[in-house]
Amino acid sequence: MSGLSKTLAWIVLCSVAVSEASAADMTARQVTAFLFAVPEGRTPNLTNKDLSGLDLSGLDFKKAKLDGANLYGADLAGANLSGASLKSARLDRATLIGPDLSGADLSGASILRPNVFVDMEAPRNPMLSFKGARMVGANLNGRFDGVDFSKADLTSAIFGPRDPREEVLITPMATFAAANFADANLSGANLSMNGLENANFAGADL
User: Does residue 201 contact residue 181 with C-beta atoms inside 8 Å?
Assistant: First the structure.
């Protein structure tokens, strides 16, 4: 086999390996069928599942257990995740336009640079709400302008890069312009290096 042939073969093998390593555990259709089949009153268990890159928009997750799930780049627009458990889940780069996350448990979750806007302009009414969600120790970085965090538990949450050396060239700080933190618990959280223009902190525990 010539040197060129060996190189091409190596490139193909590497491509296959990367594809297999990044492939989701389920297809969007399988997730839909699984959730539909769960009997009323039972909690769907998707713990530690790799659902990265899937179009899961509009799905009712029925308060599913998604602890440790990889939802990187997943489309969750309009999904019902109210009351779901997403502890230590990865939602980096996920599309979060209009999902219901009220009362969800996102403790320790990673939410880095999600898409929360239909276009580049921040909406007049928030398209994303974490109202009443538990987000203890969660890591948020990116643009969260106008997002509703009212009554959320953000104790010891990390706003911005977890390490100052991370993502500095791409997203130097998180922005929360006009975000609603009313009655939220922000004890132990550091918001000092973030954009907070017109944010509402009425009744918040700082």
Answer: yes
Residue 181, token pair as written in the block: 């933190």
Q: Locate 88 and state its tokens.
A: 């230590």
What whole-number distance in Å separates Cα of residue 4 and Cα of residue 56? Answer: 42
The tokens describing 30, both together, are 């399988």
Strand order in the sheet with 139-141: 110-112, 139-141, 158-159
Helix, coil or strand: residue 95: strand
d(CA 154, CA 75): 24
Higher pLDDT, 50 or 193: 50
In contact, 58 and 40? CB cutoff 8 Å: no
- Does the structure show a pLDDT above 60 at 61? yes
Region 1-16: mean pLDDT is: 41
Query: In this predicted structure, what is the pLDDT of residue 14?
Result: 37
User: Which of 135, 129, 134, 133 is CA-nearest to residue 110?
Assistant: 135
Structure tokens at 94: 């996920």
Give the pLDDT confidence of 67-79 residue by residue, as tens digits.
999 999 999 999 9
Rg from Cα positions in the chain: 19
- 195 exposure class (CB count in 10 Å sphere: 0-12, 13-18, 19+): middle
Q: Where are the alpha helices (DSSP H) in the chain?
A: 3-22, 28-37
Q: Write phi, then psi, for 9 (nearest 5 degrees).
A: -65, -40
pTM of the model: 0.82
Amino acid at 170: I
